[in-house]
Design brief:
Chain A: Pathway: Protein modification; protein glycosylation. Chain A: Residues 1-25 form the signal peptide. The complex is a heterodimer of chains A (614) and B (121). Chain A is α+β, with helices and mostly antiparallel strands and 614 residues long. In chain A, 30% of the residues lie in helices and 37% in strands. Chain A has helices spanning 2-18, 68-71, 262-265, 435-456, 466-508, 511-541, 549-579, 583-612; strands at residues 27-37, 43-53, 59-67, 74-83, 91-95, 97-99, 109-120, 125-134, 139-140, 144-145, 152-158, 166-175, 181-184, 190-193, 196-205, 212-218, 224-236, 240-251, 255-256, 280-284, 289-294, 303-307, 312-316, 327-337, 342-345, 348-354, 363-372, 378-383, 389-395, 404-414, 421-427. In chain A, strand 17 and strand 18 (240-251) form a beta hairpin. The longest helix of chain A has 43 residues, at 466-508. Chain B is built from two helices and one strand, in the order βαα. Classes of the chains: A alpha+beta (614), B mainly alpha (121). The interface between A and B is large, with 76 and 62 residues.
């Protein structure tokens, strides 16, 4: 708030006045260039610092300071140093930064310590590039506006670079959006060129020099802040990575005072509502499929998607435009192909996926990323380019026995600079993939076993009731019938064999094999008729088969007749061959027999069908 | 968490620790990374092979139709056998064999059906 930052400012100036300490180690900043970009709701500061070691000892640590009201809102900080000479050979190397104890430094300053790659010896220079992103430093002023007013925000900074080292030359340039600039602090060497505000260059300043400036300007950016974002990334080795994101978005700009008039909002040619935003643009990875955009009410149809080979752009429009202080909530889900994100190296698998929200220019106050790995994953570890809070959970989902391990990563105050890739390492063997179909197979198998048990078990309550006994008898009759059927089929098969041997005879003229076949079929048929006798006897004796047994007897009789006729035919043909009479003679002799045989066969088959249907 | 030693030759990016509040517990589990002297490389050059599903995803619908059809046919054979055979003549071996084969096909068929309809189990 404006009040507390003014107090901070005064405290700072007081502290500097009281604690005017000499230079903190012997580094000197020979040139400092600062560029602040306030085109979005985040203030992005890029600093290029040329550090010279003017002392006698080598220094391996560099101290970065920010005023406390900025330091509390610092979301992202990265320091790199460029190797190579000249602007063309810039290769940036990230250095480690950590918050340091402020010994000898006033309390109203946040301190960060940068570890230099190699100690800076006497007389050496080093160029550092610092990128810092601050949220909540563009304060809306006035804090409550009506629908028709423009959105004015205020930025407080220092024209002179606050550092524990002496600064030889420095300059600051603030890039404002291409809109109205209400006012700005005018110091010496201040220039406004178009929408760029330049302060400096200032020469030869002491350490901890600070001159506050305030810039009041109109911001056209959407101050969309997600209070709460839960991102669930589910990995399935069957070929899909499913991402589901639950958003609670609020407009953190100047609050709306008074009522909202839809008529004014949609009036042409001058619509009122410049401070509101309607659209949010999300940039998803290429080949994202099955994208849905819904909330608790149902599907939200105001969305557009455009995909190409490098990205998939999703433009979503919430159910209403968002003015200051208004909230909305929604869920976005999409599926990604597995081979774009899951890799294997050195025996371990890892998932390489982006960390933050895909929506551009969205600040997230609390981000929770849950990476759900398949069941059976072991040795899970996470690598992130920045600090996150980790924990592990278990999630029970489809076809799970022990549950799936979930890695939960939490981070507060996430800005789009954090949208880098994280890696989740784990071990998994493909055999564990089989457990899912095995579960389904065993489920179906249990179903079948139940059927088998049901048909075999005897569930009747009374074992001596007449219906039960009648049922038992009928079962026996059916069994006998089936056996009779099988025997008759076997007889018919042997008849077929006999006919086949006759055909062979006509082809090859070999009488001996024919006779041998005849002999074997004779013996087979004798055996079969022996088996048939007891079955027939049973059928005749049982009372429930009374209507069937005549049919069965008829069948057996017909079969016998067929047998005899076939045997007769066989003998005539063989005799004919022995006597070497012509083919036509033989055919004439067996013609009538053949007809009878065919007729008999037909009748037998009809009877068999009838028995089948019982 | 246990501290993890960094592997030599691993090219991962640094962790910069920024805490927003006092007393913030940083339960970090992460490799304290060494600076890389080269530009940030894409992971493709790190001998990292992409993993795909054991069966091509485009085959899921076809596979599900065929395996389910075969499974249902064998189930039909099983139930026909149950219905037409009499108590005395039933053979347990035949029943178990048919039901085993049918359940294998039905199990895989239902798995591919779930995958083809988007439920990536």
């Amino acid at each position: 708030m404006k009040q507390s930052s003014v107090v901070d400012l005064l405290l700072l100036l007081l502290a500097i006045a009281l604690f005017a300490t000499p230079a903190f180690s012997d580094l000197v900043l020979s040139k400092v260039e600062r560029r602040i970009d306030v085109n979005s709701q985040i203030a992005r500061v890029t600093k290029t610092l040329k550090v010279v070691n003017s002392g006698s000892e080598s220094v391996s640590e560099f101290i970065l300071t920010f005023p406390k009201f900025l330091g509390n809102n610092l979301a992202y900080l990265s320091v790199a140093h460029s190797e190579g000479k000249g602007k063309s050979k810039r290769s940036l190397v990230n250095l480690s930064v950590r918050e340091a104890d402020s010994k000898g430094i006033p309390d109203s300053i946040s301190v960060y310590s940068v570890a230099l790659p190699k100690p800076l010896s006497k007389g050496d220079t080093l160029t550092l590039e610092v990128v810092a992103a601050f949220t909540n430093v563009l304060q809306p002023f006035p804090e409550k506006i009506t629908q028709g007013e423009i959105h004015l925000v205020m930025l407080q900074e220092s024209a002179q670079y606050l550092s524990p080292y002496a600064v030889e030359s420095q300059s600051l340039s603030i890039k404002l959006p291409n809109a109205r600039i209400e006012s700005y602090t005018k110091l010496e060497n201040t220039k406004l060129q178009g929408s760029e505000l330049k302060y400096g260059p200032y020469k030869n300043l002491q350490s901890y020099s600070y001159s506050p400036i305030v810039v009041h300007f109109e911001s056209k950016a959407a101050f969309a802040v997600a209070e709460n974002l839960v991102r669930e990334i589910e990995v399935s080795h069957w070929g899909n990575v499913q991402v589901t994101e639950h958003y609670n978005v609020v407009h953190r700009g100047a609050q709306l005072r008074g009522e909202f008039s839809r008529l004014d909002f949609q009036a042409r040619p001058n619509p009122r509502g410049a401070s509101a935003f309607r659209h949010l643009l999300a940039r998803l990875p290429p080949r994202a499929h099955s994208i849905y955009y819904r909330d608790d009410i149902g599907n939200i149809s105001t969305s557009e998607m455009q995909s190409d080979s490098k990205k998939t752009e999703l433009l979503i429009e919430p159910r209403f435009p968002l003015f200051g202080g208004w909230k909305t909530f929604f869920t976005i889900g999409y599926g990604l192909p597995l081979s774009d994100f899951l890799f294997v190296s050195e025996g371990k698998r890892f998932l390489n996926i982006s960390f933050g929200s895909p929506i551009l220019d969205l600040v997230t106050e609390k981000l929770i990323v849950q990476v759900v790995l398949p069941e059976g994953s072991k040795d899970i570890s996470v690598t992130t380019p920045f600090a996150v809070k980790q924990s592990q959970e278990i999630k029970y989902s489809h076809l799970d026995i022990a549950g799936r391990p979930v890695v939960v990563l939490e981070k507060n105050n996430v800005v789009p600079d954090h949208n880098q890739h994280i890696q989740v390492y784990y071990k998994f063997s493909n055999i564990n993939l089989l457990s899912e179909p095995l579960m389904l197979i065993s489920g179906f198998f249990i179903l079948f076993i139940t059927c088998i048990i049901y048909t075999r078990a005897d569930f009747s309550i009374s074992k001596s009731s007449p219906t039960y006994l009648a049922k038992l008898q009928w079962d026996e009759v059916l069994a006998t019938l089936q056996e009779v059927q099988s025997i008759i089929q076997k007889c018919l098969a042997t008849h077929d064999k006999l006919e086949a041997s006759l055909r062979d005879l006509s082809r090859t003229g070999d009488i001996q094999t024919c006779k041998a076949a005849r002999k074997s079929t004779d013996s087979l048929l004798k055996d079969l008729s022996k088996e048939l006798k007891p079955l027939l006897g049973f059928l005749q004796s049982s009372p429930s088969a009374s209507h069937i047994s005549p049919k069965v007897e008829e069948l057996v009789a017909k079969e016998k007749e067929l047998e005899e006729k076939l045997m007769a035919k066989h003998t005539t043909v063989v005799e004919g061959y022995e006597k070497k009479s012509s083919g036509r003679d033989i055919e004439n002799r067996i013609a009538s027999q053949q007809q009878k045989i065919i007729a008999l066969r037909q009748e037998i088959e009809d009877l068999l069908e009838f028995i089948d249907e019982i | 968490g246990k501290p993890v030693k960094s592997k030599p030759g691993a090219t991962r990016v640094l962790v910069s620790e920024i805490s927003q509040r006092k007393g913030f517990h940083n339960r970090l589990f992460i490799v304290p990374q060494i600076e890389t002297k080269k530009k940030k490389k894409s992971l493709a050059t790190m001998a990292a092979k992409p993993i795909a599903s054991p069966i091509p995803v485009a085959l899921y619908p076809t596979l599900s139709v065929f395996t389910l059809a075969i499974g249902l046919v064998i189930t039909a054979i099983f139930f026909i056998y149950e219905a037409t055979s009499s108590r005395k003549n039933r053979s347990l071996g035949k029943e178990l064999a048919t039901s085993a084969v049918a359940s294998v096909f039905l199990g895989f068929g239902s798995l591919f059906l779930l995958l083809a309809s988007g439920v990536y189990v």
